[in-house]
Amino acid sequence: MTVARGGLPDGWSERHKSELSVPLPPGATFWGTPGHGYLMVDLRLLPAKVSSYDYLYGPHHVLLEEDCSLTMWLAEMGLIPMDPYIADMIERIPRQEARR
Predict the structure, then answer these.
(1) Is 65 exposed, middle or buried (0-12, 13-18, 19+ CB in 10 A)?
(2) Looking at residue 85, what is its pLDDT?
(3) Which residue segment(s) compose the domain that 25 sits in?
(4) How far apart (Å, rounded) are the C-alpha atoms in residues 24 and 88?
(5) What pLDDT digit, counting tens, does each position of 22-64 carry?
(6) Euclidean distance between CA atoms 53 and 98, whole angstroms
(7) 41 Cβ contact list (under 8 Å, min separation 6)
(8) Can you say how many angstroms the Cα of residue 60 is from the centroid of all Cα atoms in its chain?
(9) Is-contact 46 52, C-beta < 8 A?
(10) Is residue 32 part of a domain?
(11) Is position 23 within any domain?
(12) What pLDDT was estimated at residue 68?
């Protein structure tokens, strides 16, 4: 079973709101930290699948890390094209539906 991490990512206290090259739907916000970026998804508004690279954030949010989970989420939501690289990640990286 795939489980997202508890706690918060390193540098979360130094986060800043950032923009992506694609517009995000309401309920999704991209945050940068000094070392990494995370997409915060409000599970009351949007679906999300989580992997062991992601974080649970309170009762209704997840933080999808930018290298894998964020890219897969964007493709699955139809916000970027589903190319072979992303399809391969979806096949290889175990994920499960995040609970709302």
Answers:
(1) buried
(2) 96
(3) 12-97
(4) 23
(5) 999 999 999 999 989 999 999 999 999 999 999 999 999 999 9
(6) 13
(7) 27, 28, 48, 61, 62, 63, 64, 73, 98
(8) 13
(9) no
(10) yes
(11) yes
(12) 93
Domain-located, residue 5: no
Domain count, the chain: 1
CA-CA-CA-CA dihedral for 13, 33, 7, 57, to nearest 10:
100
With the C-alpha atoms ordered 60, 75, 10, 52, is the resulting torsion angle positive or negative? positive
Q: How far apart are CA 39 and CA 70, in angstroms?
A: 6
Residue owning tokens 């997840």:
62
Structure-token pair, residue 56:
């649970």
Tokens representing 78?
A: 């139809």
What average pLDDT score do residues 64-90 get? 97
In a domain, 47, yes or no: yes
Q: Model pTM?
A: 0.93
Looking at per-residue confidence, does 91 or 5 come out higher?
91
**Residues 83, 12: Cα–Cα separation, whole Å:** 31
